[in-house]
Design brief:
Number of domains: 2
Distance between the termini: 172 Å
CATH superfamily of the largest domain: 2-enoyl-CoA Hydratase, Chain A, domain 1
Structural class: alpha/beta
Shape: globular
Strand order of the largest sheet: 3-4-5-6-7-8-9
Number of helices: 10
């Protein structure tokens, strides 16, 4: 052993060796191409800091930012039959389910939870587009029914975040049956007098748009979200015409009266709580640990002036008396 072996070779190896860097530290924005550091992106609720593009966000990350203190309780959802049609394309349906579960860490494409948003008790449901494109299957139908039943049981409004590519083809007509089934669940909320608020995220398409995603008492969308039944490319190929710029995007639908609001993700918490309190007749939004504001005493209107006593009508002159007879 000499100085070449002990010093020179390790020094050369350290210069030319590459450190392994995790691949998930940086994310490229789909809109502007900016490379975003994962911590900065997470702190900004997965919204591009350069172009304000709203990227995909997992339901658990959304709920952590939505509920007070990030505290919420999951609502149990009944599990459907795993493979009712024994469907197989390039892979078997159960294999695709297991692959999606491994990639996302979730059991299915929708998460249901209950908690408080700025001291406002709510039940919330969110679709995960990363799970088989958020496709609507029997589990999603069960989740919406479970969310509606829990909202009715606790007397809370229901908030739903939609993100889907449509119905799940591996379940065939059973997935299409979730459209009327979820519509009935929304009608149950209306009969109970509870608000149903929908936040449409990118993308919300297909049978989801044709059912529960467009039945809210108030319709909110995230900026730039694609909201449609058939996509722009399908429509262009069908009618063979170029569609207007921004067609079927949230801002376009807002201008044409199909939405009530287009709200950035950072402002949704405040706006959802405010709208729900207005619909349920509650007081103003409570921030932080401040006590609920005391209701101000209304000033009584000034008393009306007393009516003047009515004057008696002028006495009529008595008729002249007849002269006394002798």
């Amino acid at each position: 052993m000499n100085w070449i072996t002990n010093y020179v070779r390790p020094k050369i190896n350290s210069l030319f060796s590459r450190r392994e860097v995790p691949e998930n530290l940086w994310t490229k924005c789909d809109e502007c191409g900016t490379m975003l550091f994962h911590r900065e992106l997470h702190d900004n609720l997965y919204v591009c800091t350069n172009c304000n593009h709203h990227m995909h966000i997992m339901p658990r990350d959304r709920f952590a930012a939505l509920f007070d203190g990030g505290i919420y309780t999951e609502v149990a959802v009944p599990a459907p039959i795993e493979d009712p049609l024994k469907f197989r394309d390039q892979k078997r349906y159960p294999e695709r389910l297991r692959a999606a579960q491994k990639a996302t860490g979730e059991a299915e494409a929708m998460l249901v939870a209950e908690g408080e948003i700025l001291k406002t008790p709510v039940v919330a449901a969110a679709q995960d587009f990363a799970f088989m494109a958020g496709s609507m299957g029997m589990y999603v139908g069960n989740a919406i029914v479970a969310a509606a039943e829990r909202a009715i049981e606790t007397g809370r409004p229901l908030v739903l975040f939609s993100a889907a590519g449509g119905a799940r083809m591996q379940e065939g007509i059973l997935s299409l049956m979730q459209m009327p089934r979820t519509t009935v669940a929304v009608e149950m909320l209306r009969e109970a007098g509870l608000p149903y608020l929908v936040v449409l995220t990118h993308p919300t398409t297909g049978g989801v748009t044709a059912s529960y995603a467009m039945l809210g008492d108030v319709q909110i969308a995230e900026p730039g979200a694609l909201i449609c039944f058939a996509g722009p490319r399908v429509i262009e190929q069908t009618i063979r015409e170029t569609l207007p710029e921004g067609f079927q995007r949230a801002e376009y639908l807002l201008d044409h009266g199909m939405l009530d609001r287009v709200t950035p993700r950072s402002a949704q918490r405040e706006e959802i709580a405010t709208i729900l309190r207005m619909l349920t007749g509650q007081g103003p939004v409570v921030h932080g640990d401040l006590p609920r504001p005391v209701e101000t005493t209304q000033i009584a209107p000034p008393p009306e002036p007393e009516a003047l006593p009515k004057l008696d009508p002028e006495p009529q002159s008595a008729p002249p008396s007849e002269p006394a007879k002798s």
